[in-house]
Amino acid sequence: VDIPASYVALLHALTRGQVQFLVMGVAGVNFHASLSQTLFVTEDLDLLLPPDPANTVRAWQVCESLEFVLTSAGGRLEEPLDLELAERVVERRAAVRAIHPDGAKADLSYLMAGCGFAEAWEGRKSFMIEGAAVPVAALGAIVRSKRLAGRKKDQLFLVSHAEILRELLGAEEEER
Amino acid sequence: VTTVDTKPSIADEIFDEELYLLAEKAWEDFLEHEYADYLRLVEKLEAHPENRDGADKTWVLRSQQAWREMFRRAVQVP
Question: CA-CA-CA-CA torsion for A124, A107, A101, A87, nearest 10 degrees?
């Protein structure tokens, strides 16, 4: 099965384009999955950015070069996508969603509950995706942020994930 | 003219107060009795050889795409 080219292209282009980012959210959890483990369905890719306007502009440029449309608060992000706009977006910690015509969606965010970017970056993992090293937030940091976020869907996710890990790793522990 | 949708959402209808309280209780129980062990398993998974730095995780995206394709190709049986 082919992976949607836009996801791979986005991850590769962000790393090539000197954009600092971390994969977080359910996608980040899935990248920590074991081969024999259930994956969670997610329709988007959550990316954590540092609160750096210049880095943000580079991220936007990469998205646009790959035909992603940038939106925020339900509307298209206003042009020009320059440093001035990036400063406003970073100041407000506003989330920006990048949507590709093939349906791929990436959320560019500055917030991870309970963890600043620098701390998350320090604890990151680097996984290979189609030959490119992609930085992923540590599983523990993602889990703790979901607990702090406290939304019903996060609570449901954590309970389900705990059950999966018990089945996977609990069985390993019993075998010893 | 402004219209307001007063019909409750499906979530509101399903997630009534009783169910909401049950979910709250289940979450509190999880935090009290299972969360610490869950974090231990999370640490264990992070340290797993499959999660070493540089591990190839292309299969994760491939698996998710296979799942999406399966549902995209689904047809309704008359």
Answer: -110
